[in-house]
Amino acid sequence: MREIELTCDGRPWVFAQTLIPQATLARQRWLSALGRAALGERLAALPSLQRGPLEYTRLLPGDRLHHRALR
User: Fold this and answer.
1) Cβ(56)–Cβ(65) below 8 Å
2) pTM of this structure
3) Taking the chain (71 residues) in consecutive chunks of 10 residues, what is each chunk's mean pLDDT?
4) Torsion angle in degrees (nearest 10) through CA of 19, 34, 15, 44
């Protein structure tokens, strides 16, 4: 799991969480070695990659990830 926060003028606007299945990590070992590198940039450099639909939601107080995003 990777989590990032995107800010604008020092204020958080986007909290993103990426879940990578173990089966994917086993086939794509470079994902385990990303460290703090930008996942999006690395994925965009793969010519055979096709982006699927994005999943997003607005986090409201009481949502499971709301407290985590505020950390």
Assistant:
1) no
2) 0.60
3) 87 85 91 87 88 83 79 71
4) -90
pLDDT of residue 37: 87
The helix, strand and coil proportions of the chain, stated in percent and rounded to the nearest 5, come to: 30, 20, 50
Q: Which amino acid is at 39?
A: L
DSSP-assigned beta bridge partners for residue 5:
15
- Please name every residue paired with 18 in a beta bridge, in sequence order, or none if there are none: 2
Residue 34 Cα to chain centre, angstroms: 12
**Both tokens of residue 29?**
């070992």
Interatomic CA distance for residues 60 and 7, integer angstroms: 18
